[in-house]
Amino acid sequence: MALLDGQTAVVTGGAQGIGFAIAQRLIAEGARVVIGDINEQTSKNAVGELGGPSVARYAVCDVRDLAQVEAMLDLAEREFGPVDVMVNNAGMTRDSTMRKMSEQDFDDVISVHLKGTWNGTRAAAGRMRERGSGAVVNLSSISGKVGFVGQTNYSAAKAGIVGLTKAAAKEVAHTGVRVNAVQPGLIRTAMTEAMPQRIWDQKMSEIPMGRAGEPDEVAKVVLFLASDLSSYMTGTVLEITGGRLM
Predict the structure, then answer these.
(1) 229: DSSP letter
(2) Which residues in the chain show pLDDT less than 70?
(3) Which of 40, 74, 191, 227 is deepest in the core (most CB within 10 A)?
(4) Domain with 138 in it
């Protein structure tokens, strides 16, 4: 039997990149998935690539808006049944040094990552606790562990997700709901491959395994935390970095 056979999952930011890889992996293990994304056309295309409406649906969702997050969960429940797995993956970057960063760029990144994750965790856990089971997986980043130049907004948000995950895990553990997080390092996506070569090379020099990670390598760890393989784990943070910055 597949690890998530018959389960319903929601993945924010699931139309592309790491989020899409997570949706693919969850479907491969038997889940039916609703992806939430702000880009409707990209979401439509993603549903087709994921196998069509029998296994995937989409909701246009700005995770900063709790009402939109609740509507996304309503859609998932209506189409596939009660949500068993919630993956808070949606994000954005607005990199700049602190001296040059605008307040808007700081606020937007904090809001999408941190408030968005809070909205998703709160909404999903609120429903899961009524049934006595469920798994929430939040996407942090190695940037939330060490801090990188030009990412005071992103590093702060990703560090905040770790604290949020641990606090939420303590609040809902007695209800049968688990909340965990992952911290990816350098993962090969369209965004990271657009880096200047010197930045890419510098990051690669920090990785003992000598290569970037692939989106599915993140997805497989998310699957572990979403499934009963991690049934006695909550409030944990797993690094997916190839040993970078241990």
Answers:
(1) G
(2) none
(3) 227
(4) 8-237
pLDDT (0 to 100) of residue 1: 83
Look at residue 218 and give its three-state secondary structure.
helix
Q: Whole-angstrom Cα distance, residue 60 to residue 52?
A: 17
The pair of three-digit structure tokens given for residue 83, joined into one six-digit string = 């949500």
* CA distances from residue 244 to 95, 124, 239 in whole angstroms, order as listed: 21, 32, 9
* Spatial CB neighbours of 40, under 8 Å, sequence gap ≥ 6: 58, 60
Structural domain contains residue 3: no
Token pair recorded at residue 18: 């790491």
Give the per-residue pLDDT at 194. Answer: 87
| CA 99/CA 133 separation, integer angstroms | 45
Active site residues: 154
Q: How many CA atoms lie within 13 A of 231 on its CB side?
A: 5
Predicted confidence (pLDDT) per residue in 4-57, tens digit = 999 999 999 999 999 999 999 999 999 999 999 999 999 999 999 999 999 999
Q: In the numeric block, which tokens belong to residue 122?
A: 């709160």
Whether pTM > 0.85 for this model: the answer is yes
The pair of three-digit structure tokens given for residue 234, joined into one six-digit string: 């909550």
Is the Cα torsion angle 47, 50, 56, 59 positive or negative in sign? Answer: negative
CATH of the domain at 233: 3.40.50.720
Structural domain count of the chain = 1
Residues 90 and 108 sit within 8 Å (Cβ to Cβ): no
Task: For residue 41, give every residue at least 6 positions away whose Cβ sits within 8 Å of its Cβ, in sequence order, or none.
Answer: none
Neighbours of 11 (CB within 10 A): 35
Residue 73: what pLDDT? 98
What's the pLDDT at 85? 99
Per the domain annotation, does 216 fall within a domain? yes
Largest CA distance in the chain: 54
